TrEMBL record:
Protein name: DUF2975 domain-containing protein
Keyword check for Membrane: yes
Chain segments annotated as transmembrane: 32-49, 69-90
Keywords for this protein: Membrane, Transmembrane, Transmembrane helix
Protein species of origin: Roseovarius azorensis
Origin superkingdom: Bacteria
Length: 108
């Protein structure tokens, strides 16, 4: 493959080289990428949880007496979402590991 490893080589070859994976791996890679993106989104929301609730109170969307409770509920929902994504990633990794071990055993 000419252009592979060359900084100023043709971009087409680099993209074609990246897309040579079987469809199953591309699908899993896309799912993993979306899960990691979900982790980043949840992390950003968890960082700004206090400010988001305060802005909603200031805008009149929430009553002050419910702000603490709603902040706690949003925090729990974010924690559960983070946990679900982490479990999904671990299952994906475990499934890939078991499939790889099965392929090694079949070849041996």
């Amino acid at each position: 493959m000419s252009g592979q490893g060359v900084v100023n080589g043709p971009q087409r070859l680099a993209v074609a080289w990246l897309m040579r994976f079987p469809p199953r791996l591309r699908r899993e890679g896309r799912r993993l990428g979306l899960m990691v993106l979900g982790h980043f989104i949840i992390f950003a929301l968890a960082l700004g949880n206090d400010e988001i609730i305060a802005a909603c109170v200031n805008a009149g969307l929430l009553e002050v007496r419910y702000a603490g409770t709603i902040e706690l509920i949003v925090g729990v929902v974010l924690f559960v979402g983070w946990s679900v994504l982490t479990i999904a990633i671990m299952r994906m990794v475990d499934r890939a590991r078991s499939e790889a071990l099965a392929e090694v055993r079949d070849k041996a």
